[in-house]
């Protein structure tokens, strides 16, 4: 999950060091002061609290699902959030930080807001796309040891990233698909995100994921209370909306393919059986 804050910084108005005639040393000192100020606005998470939060999350997953899910959850989370960080730093939102949220997961936060909705879409999809890399070591250990438990870890990594693509606030899918829907009509975005958000909350309650359900319910509620639905950034063009939808669907297909591959190898059956097993595990099918 990524924290895409509105309000891009305009470098031309960021301080007096951009004025013509400034001596180079003064500009360098001003840039250094500006860099420190930005880092102060986006400090790193306290190391002890980060470790405690990680241990609490791992402990919850171990207790509910088993050790391999705890391992896959933590590795998958860190790789996923690092994908957001890489994109934020590359696209002018850095320096970005990772924050671990006890019992829930994590979030990546940039020092600057996205300069456009297109950048926001790319940052949102970078987490699930990059996060699939975390499945590779689980496939590798399974290939070496032959122990199918590692395939469960690979499957869980894929599911973490796939669920993050659900267009429900505050998940990555809402930030990736929301601008596309808003390009058609702002009310379409509101109706879709709130409707799907409500369905995901109900799914969490029905499957005993009460902490996740409460977290998502708070996300939906915050969107309801938000005055301006869209951030004050450059909206998507029609071509960017089409590209965003294509990237969203491609990322979702990649996550589903990795998950179904892991489950098919685990069960020894075909994709159909793997899909049915995954659906039963997630409480979607009976």
Folded structure, characterized:
- By secondary structure, the chain is mostly helical.
- The chain has one domain (2-281).
- The chain is 67% helix and 4% strand.
- It has eleven helices and three strands; from the N terminus they run E-H-H-H-E-E-H-H-H-H-H-H-H-H.
- Helix 3 crosses helix 6, helix 5 runs antiparallel to helix 6 and helix 10 packs across helix 11 (271-281).
- The two termini are 29 Å apart.
- Residues 8-22 have low confidence and may be disordered.
* Sequence of strands across the biggest β-sheet: 1-3-2
Structural class: mainly alpha
Biggest β-sheet strands, sense, barrel: 3 strands, mixed
What percentage of amino acids are in beta strands? under 5%
What number of structural domains do the residues give?
1
Q: Report the principal-axis shape.
A: globular
